[in-house]
Records
---
Amino acid sequence: MTDFETILYERPADKVARIVLNRPEARNAQSMRMLYELNDAFDRAAQDDSVSVIILAANGPHFSAGHDLRETDALEVVTEHERVGTWCGFGCAGAQSQMAVEKEMYIGLSERWRNLPKPTIAAVQGKVIAGGLMLVWPCDLIVAADDALFQDNTVSMGVAGAEFFNHPFEVGVRKAKEMLFTSDFLTAEEVHRLGMVNHVVPLDELHSHTLQLASRIAEKPLFALRLAKEAVNVAQDNQGRVNAMQTSFAYHQLCHSHNQQVHGMIIDPGFMAKTFGTKAGAGS
Ligand code: ZN
């Protein structure tokens, strides 16, 4: 059994696995190590035939502050790690290495988790910022605590939306534009009304409610669950999701490249100081 540093892997009930983000001191900002560990844990749960449903949860007051922008060895960690996708060019100059990292770690992993052949449920509390959405949205169901707040603030960073660009499919076209244009937080109640989350529950009932839901689903035949998931995913993909996401990912890389040329860094330099001071985690 692998030892994880940044997450916990639990079996809280029969046929249910729970993966818990465990960097509460960093508001669960996603380092490259955390993303790889998360991927290993998802693989473990997916390949374990005694698991039918996977819960993704987080320790601490906030689900995730997004990608860990202050991580200094991100490229080294990714370069040295065994590839999980098919992309290459990690050590190349110019925009290539940035695109390679984001193709593997961001859109690549989120897409991979979205297509895991078992039901997944996100249990979400506190703030879910930018890259945080890229952990929550790939899950099949989302249970939100009443204090949950959702934000994509990438436009404030000079980037045209998070890498896993599912916004129009999650909250509808108009709200997708508003959340991107304003960088405002959406409340649990609001995203429930928009159909982005399945349930809103009191914070102290988040984990019991999610576990109960997972256990009820886990009683069903797994092959039927797997194919029901596939059927809905195929329906969504036939609405243009994959093409839309490929286009937005290209725009996202164009923004990073533009910022690099104009500002010498991949996001607008005013963002970190203005929004987060010296604190970790914001998502890009
Ligand atoms: Zn990016």
Note: The mean pLDDT is 94.
---
Amino acid sequence: MLTIITGAQFGDEGKGKIVDHLAENYDIVARFQGGDNAGHTVVVGDEVYKVHQIPSGILVGTNALIGPGVVLNPFSLTEEMKMLQDRGIVITNENFGIDTKASLIMPYHISMDILSEASRKNRVGTTQKGIAYAYADRVLRNEIRLGDLFDEDRFYQKLNAILPAKKEVIAKLGGNPYDLFPDEEAKRLLKIGKELQHYAVDVSYVINSSLRAGKKVLAEGAQGALLDVVHGTQKYVTSSSTIAGSACTGLGIGPSQVTKTIGLVKAYVTRVGNGPFPTELTDADGEHMVTVGNEFGTTTGRKRRCGWLDMPLLKKSANLNGYTELVLTKLDVLSGLETIKICAAYDLDGERIDYPPSLSEDLERCVPVYTENDGWDETLGEIRNFFDLPPNARKFVEYIEKKNGIPFSYISVGPKREQIIKMDVRRRDVRYNPIMRPLF
Ligand code: IMP
């Protein structure tokens, strides 16, 4: 049984907590795209864990895999492994594997990301982790893979062929090419390679064999659907495919294996970095979301832009991912707001539309058309049953479900593992059809 979980918005939907919650019921949790640009915060008891590359399922003892679709930063990965091990999390080659073919994020990729962002007028606002440059090298067949570190000669051959061109680019971008990749750094990388060799596996083989043996696999996406390199709000996107289909290519499994696809929806929208954001708020309601929701990036510490829930964008995400169920996160953050708004449609150049235009340049001009409801004052952190929610919070949830035609299976009402409402989907009056259906 294979479940795919992805963020339905611009990332940071609270994936860490939900994956952590679901992982107990799975044998394997696997990351399929992205790199250490991702950041998941998971609260276990009084402990707060921030993970960037290792699937957070490992915190509850589920086996964790990093697929060949990711770009791997070997330096930060080993630091992350050590941080978790120091805090008592067991990581061995019995419960953790990394695909031998994973492309490496090299120090020159990071320099190029930082320098090119600094030189641009219209910055993407990247996490400056070298993600685009590492993916570009993969597409150019110019990458160093994890497995290349296991053979010193092959590694140096590849590195020496790559470095001169990188030095040229870095010099052009205004950087100092001489300290680009000193020999001691190459030696350190080879040493890290020796450590990681211990964990190297063929993820596609492991997952397919596990599925055949009746095991349950959870494929964990990073970032969010609207940051997808093809389908997102280009050019303000990340460099990988972040939608559910990417789990198949990024892990090496066939689409016929997919049992369900879960979408994570935050009760409001956040975005880090630049790019269109029709419902963005710059008022006291937006500040409420930032402060109560603690909307600061796990990876970069940047303050996230916040705005009302956007149904046209959610409708697009549902199409891109084929969600069979949704999880609503951070509903508790909306407590205390006098009025709650949801963007039901856009006005684009005088025309009412309920689906986002293809180009982000056009999305920039979309003016939200809101539906409004009274808010609620009660705190939600202790509530475990949907029917105990304040009536206006229930209305909010039901509105989204009905408009989407996709049920919520969980509602998260706080950062702690136990702060979750399990929805009984069969009791809920939701017209449910996982195959593309109109939302309105
Ligand atoms: P990059 O992935 O670092 O190249 O950044 C490209 C865009 O994706 C920027 O707007 C980043 O802020 C955004 N981004 C990348 N990773 C994440 C994430 O994990 N959460 C939210 N936004 C992200």
Note: The two ends are 32 Å apart (CA to CA).
